[in-house]
Specification:
By secondary structure, this protein is an alpha+beta fold. Helix content is 54%, strand content 9%.
Length: 443
């Protein structure tokens, strides 16, 4: 049976259009509203709005966006709040929602359109937040700025300033990832504090960052993606930067860094100590960063800082390979070369095109950590089992006691196999259970 509706079979009336829309017959509703809109000589905002709503239901948001652009350019039509609302939703559907920064030539249009939505819609209370695309648009802009190679934290703060955190939704949405595993998406309120604390730290607005970190912990009951740890790290770091009870602040950050065992936390701890002229402590924590998972390109600034610290210690033999590695990865990523690094490349005749010896860098770091910290915290044992996925397992301690859980990311020299004799340190995991860290193979 032919599904095409002939012109003479349609009664073009607002009543029939509404019935069709309410019954979910959006193609028919669109057809009737389009005809009625044209018959009004394109002057009825009521009909234009309903035509736009019907287009959106037919996944034709782009048609309405282009139509509104034409009407705006002509200057012969005055939009009302309902048309603005539908137009903003269509702009979000067509331009904002699916934007990817891989298509960089569209970035300026993306921002212009986002500004338009921000200016022509409003943030509503939490239970009605998604009645407009206001919050979703601002979140998309912030995500896009964060995904850019050169991040503009001032712009991120500007966009965050358009949100009122007190009325942001705290609702957590569940979804299935590509593996079918059920996961949760952070609420809009958590998103806000996640990004404002990071941006404030990056722009060195330390006191404001501390205030927002504290607010995050009072307003968010459940964190996702380790946001509680990142926010706590930012708060401790900023406390170290404001010169108030610095020693206590450094100890707080040190305890967190040792517990989490992430290289970038050790790097920041090193930077804090360097700021207060604690050179040996700064070198220790910089060196401990290399005892974690090694992430070459991401460690560019750490490599340079470590070189500067070894130079300050008067040990150029150790400083040179770190200078060379920093130069190599900066050159590889087409990053600018700081003046001190340029000088070191010249004076020590370093080859920025030569791939660095990662094992040498790690060996220098491990030897320094071992020398400073000694072996007093080391435990001995054997690898008892490794799970089939190869990422975790258990250690049988040499001394009596329960088997100790470990993760391969905490192994300094891989690979490990069942039966290997090892040394390790004990630390509390995220669940407050004891696990092995800084694991090395013996012999």
């Amino acid at each position: 049976m032919n599904d095409i509706i002939l012109e003479q079979e349609i009664e073009y009336s607002q009543e029939n259009a509404k019935v069709a829309y309410d019954e979910g017959n959006f193609p028919l509703a669109k057809q009737i509203y389009e005809k009625l809109w044209e018959d009004s000589e394109r002057k009825s905002s009521f009909l234009l709005n309903h035509y736009g709503m019907s287009l959106r239901k037919n996944n034709e948001s782009d048609v309405f966006v282009q139509l509104c652009d034409e009407l705006s350019e002509s200057g012969n039509f005055i939009f009302d709040k309902y048309v603005y609302s539908t137009q903003c939703r269509c702009i979000y559907d067509f331009i904002i929602k699916g934007y990817s920064d891989e298509n960089k030539e569209r970035f300026n249009d993306f921002i212009t359109r986002a500004e338009y939505i921000k200016d022509h819609s409003n943030q509503m209370k939490a239970d009605k937040q998604f009645f407009t695309p206001y919050v979703m648009t601002i979140e998309k802009v912030i995500k896009t700025y964060n995904e850019r190679t050169s991040k503009n934290y001032r712009e991120i703060l500007r966009w965050l300033s358009y949100l009122n955190p007190d009325i942001l939704s705290e609702e957590v949405y569940k979804f299935q990832d590509e593996t079918g595993r059920e996961r949760e998406k952070a609420s809009s309120k958590e998103f806000y504090y996640q990004h404002i604390t990071k941006a404030l730290e990056k722009t060195e607005e330390y006191k404001e960052c501390i205030i927002n970190c504290e607010m995050a912990f009072t307003q968010i009951t459940k964190f996702h993606y380790r946001n509680d740890r990142w926010i706590k790290a930012r708060m401790y770091y900023c406390k170290c930067m404001v010169d108030v009870d610095v020693e206590s602040a450094i100890m707080e950050y040190k305890d967190l860094a040792y517990k989490e065992n992430f290289w970038f936390m050790y790097h920041k701890l090193s930077q804090i100590c360097f700021r207060y002229n604690k050179i040996q402590d700064a070198l220790l924590y910089a060196s401990k960063a290399y005892c974690c998972s090694f992430e070459n390109e991401k460690m560019v600034n750490l490599l340079l800082d470590t070189a500067v610290l070894w130079k300050a210690e008067g040990n150029m033999d150790n400083a040179k390979p770190y200078f060379q590695a920093s130069a190599y990865y900066r050159t590889r990523q087409a990053w600018s070369i700081p003046e001190e690094l340029k000088y070191s490349i010249f004076i020590y005749e370093l080859d920025s095109e030569k791939k660095p010896d990662i094992n040498l860098l790690k060996r220098i770091a491990e030897n320094y950590v071992s020398r400073v910290e000694g072996q007093k915290n080391k435990e001995e044992g054997k690898v008892k089992m490794i799970f089939p996925h190869g990422m975790t397992g258990f250690i049988k301690p040499k001394a009596d006691g329960n088997d100790v859980y470990f993760n391969m990311k905490d192994v300094i020299k891989k690979p490990l196999t069942v039966g290997d004799s090892i040394e390790y340190e004990l630390a509390k995991g995220n669940d407050d259970k004891i696990r092995a860290v800084r694991i090395t193979k013996r012999g």
